[in-house]
Write a structure and sequence with these properties.
The protein is α+β, with helices and mostly antiparallel strands and 645 residues long. It has three domains: 41 residues, no CATH class; 196 residues, Penicillin-binding protein 2a (Domain 2), CATH 3.90.1310.10; 341 residues, DD-peptidase/beta-lactamase superfamily (Beta-lactamase, 3-Layer(aba) Sandwich), CATH 3.40.710. The protein is 32% helix and 24% strand. The chain has 21 helices and 26 strands. Helix 2 crosses helix 3, helix 11 runs antiparallel to helix 20 and helix 13 crosses helix 16. The termini are far apart. Belongs to the transpeptidase family. It is found in: Membrane. Its main location: membrane. It comes from Kineococcus gynurae.
Length: 645
């Protein structure tokens, strides 16, 4: 019954009954109110209180500081700095009314969103009208500006504008710039996640150590929840809860920042000069601690507008290539270690040799040479290498290639890291010609760190240690934990390693292929490589991989430098293209580390025997490429006999 009908019904009654009716109506209404009050304060109290608290509660992310990345001396390569995200409550700012100190009450400096924007905009260096639009509305939360320095935020906070606050965030900084970008890596645009009613941003690592060690570096973000008033202000004694952030651990590398810079500038200059597709320099000590890993092209980590996919890679680990003649060191090491040859073993070496159904060539036509084993390596003879290497069985050669690290992942965890490829004799891909081509470094692939590892093993007296990059880590409290000691394995004897170093000294001599890598005052041992390069677009050999890998001082070596240039157009021989970069970087490294010049002259090993009295002409002077036509026309990648230098 409606109230009007109830009133009319009551009015038609006698006075005493009318009074009783009104009392009943009032009691009924009060009963309804009472029941509802009991319901709200009793059964529904907890739920309603929780919903009210939730509406008043604000969740603010507490971002963990990303761990630093430092070099071997503790110099910063990557670090995070505090930044602020300035936020606003437009609903609270609507009532903003600011007067100048001591001015009449009717003289206002700023009113509402426009007045607040006029004060804040100059500090953020933004347009007042644009900022006014952001501050206008009835919402409780809007982002005003990101990546604001603490100093600027302090100036904004001093304005004491109700409805303006900030959230603490971080920004990644790379003090070494482009020189370490392919090693340290970079972060991309943060991804958003909705959590506890707020937006949390997660760093997205794109490359390098930032990606490989992200779980260690990133730490764990926290969250703070607190009560706020209707105007968006924090209630000082209101409910609050904090889950603290846990900062990430720091990485301590074996890298020398100064040497990394030198390697980077040297390879960038040579990539530009030789018009190469890319270039790589690896510097390590004989225990295979990586001191520099430089790749070109690189990028400016602060430039988000241009991202060449190749510049995101650390090509020292991601680029697989046929090593060419630098792999001859493995073949001759195996033959020496098995006692099948000596450095002075004589070989009568023509410019071509028939094996199976193929003809294998040296890099250029020449009369028959009477070379020792040392002469074969100094002259980088493909035919001579086959003559010495075929004393090994297929399984023996493969076993030594594996023991030197070919086909085994370096294990540094970089995105796209390649293990290279070397076929075992029982593989369906292994043919009789594979046996011969792999002796001089074609038909198998490696990355630059693997290629350098061979020479570090020789420098270390025949003991191979797994390459290492991270010396240790430290937690947010500064407690340092050293990385586990890398595993080691003897590959060849000390005697074999010493003989190989002496043989490789001749490579940088006047009768060798890399006079441009010679460093006055220091004995250098090394090997050139000028390998035909497989072009995946055509599945054929087109272009070259030019390389030089060496060590110094060769009588007691501790430093190994590998230089790789992919598809150089302006000169492609390893000795003349990669050799000068080796000399530049190695000279810097020797001087930086205070290595004393050599006092003992190079080993005087005979390169020739019998009637041949003088040096031959090296391919560096001959003007033709290894195993290709003089026109540089593409040849099928499966063609054996394509030589290397």
């Amino acid at each position: 019954m409606s109230p009007s009908r109830t009133s009319r019904a009551v009015a038609g009654l006698r006075p005493e009954r009318r009074l009783r009716a009104w009392v009943l109506v009032v009691l009924l209404v009060l009963s309804v109110f009472g029941f509802r009050l009991v319901q709200l304060q009793g059964a529904d109290a907890a739920d309603l209180a929780g919903r009210a608290l939730e509406q008043r509660t604000r969740a603010v992310p507490l971002y963990a500081m990303r761990g630093d990345i430092v070099d071997d001396k503790g110099v910063l390569l990557a670090t995070s700095v505090e930044r602020r995200t300035v936020i606003a409550s437009p609903a609270a700012i609507a009532g903003f009314n600011k007067r100048t100190d001591g001015s009449p009450r009717d003289k206002k400096l700023g009113v509402g969103p426009a007045g607040a924007a006029a004060l804040i905009a100059p500090l953020l260096n933004v347009d007042v009208a644009t900022l006014t639009a952001k501050l206008t509305g009835t919402g409780q939360y809007t982002v005003v500006a990101k990546d604001v320095t603490p100093e600027v935020w302090q100036q904004i906070d001093a304005l004491d504008i109700g409805g303006i606050a900030s959230e603490r965030t971080t920004q990644r900084v790379y003090p070494a710039g482009a020189s370490t970008s392919t090693l340290v890596g970079i972060l991309g645009t943060p991804e958003q996640e909705q959590k506890a009613g707020t937006t949390i941003y997660h760093d997205v690592p794109l490359s390098g150590l930032e990606a490989a060690e992200n779980s260690l570096l990133s730490g764990r973000d926290g969250l703070e929840r607190y009560e706020r008033s209707g105007g968006g202000q924090r209630i000082p004694l209101g409910e609050s809860e904090t889950q603290p952030a846990v900062d990430g651990d720091a990485l301590h590398l074996t890298i020398d920042r100064d040497l990394q810079w030198k390697a980077q500038t040297a390879i960038e200059a040579q990539v530009e000069k030789s018009q190469a597709e890319s270039g790589t320099v690896v510097v390590m000590d004989k225990h295979q601690r990586l001191l520099a890993m430089a790749s070109a092209p690189s990028l400016d980590p602060t430039d988000t507008t241009s991202r060449n996919p190749l510049a995101l890679q650390n090509t020292a680990l991601t680029q697989a290539f046929e090593p060419g003649s630098t792999a001859k060191v493995v073949t001759l090491a195996a033959a020496l270690e098995e006692g099948l040859v000596t450095p002075a073993s004589p070989f009568t070496v023509p410019d071509e040799i028939d094996k199976v159904d193929r003809t294998f060539h040296d890099s250029h036509p020449h009369p028959v040479h009477q070379l020792t084993l040392a002469g074969i390596l100094a002259q980088s003879s493909n035919v001579g290498t086959i003559m010495a290497g075929e004393k090994l069985s297929q399984q023996q050669l493969y076993d030594y290639q594996r023991r030197f690290g070919f086909g085994t992942s370096v294990g540094l965890g970089f995105e796209g890291e390649t293990a290279g490829r070397v076929w075992p004799p029982d593989s369906k891909h292994y043919t009789e010609t594979t046996y011969f081509t792999s002796m001089f470094g074609q038909g198998l692939t490696v990355n630059a760190v693997q290629a350098a590892s061979v020479f570090a093993t020789i420098a270390n007296g025949g003991v191979r240690t797994s390459p290492s990059l991270i010396a240790g880590t430290s937690d947010p409290e500064g407690n340092y934990t050293a990385s586990p000691t890398p595993s080691s394995e003897r590959v060849v004897s000390t005697k074999t390693a010493t003989e190989l170093r002496q043989i490789m000294e001749a490579v940088v001599g006047e009768d060798g292929t890399a006079a441009a890598a010679n460093i006055p005052g220091y004995k250098v041992a090394g090997k050139t490589g000028t390998a035909e390069r497989v072009d995946p677009e055509c599945g054929c050999y087109r272009g070259y991989t030019a390389s030089f890998i060496g060590m110094a001082p060769s009588d007691d070596p501790d430093l190994i430098v590998a230089v790789i240039l992919q598809d150089p157009k302006n000169g492609y021989y390893g000795g003349s293209t990669a050799g000068p970069v080796f000399k530049d970087v190695m000279t810097y490294a020797l001087q930086e580390r205070g290595v004393e010049p050599s006092t003992v002259p190079p080993a005087d090993l005979p390169l020739f025997w019998g009637a041949q009295a003088g040096p031959t002409t090296s391919s560096e002077d001959a003007g033709t490429a290894d195993g290709t036509t003089s026109t540089g026309a593409p040849t099928p990648a499966s063609t054996p006999g394509g030589g290397t230098r």
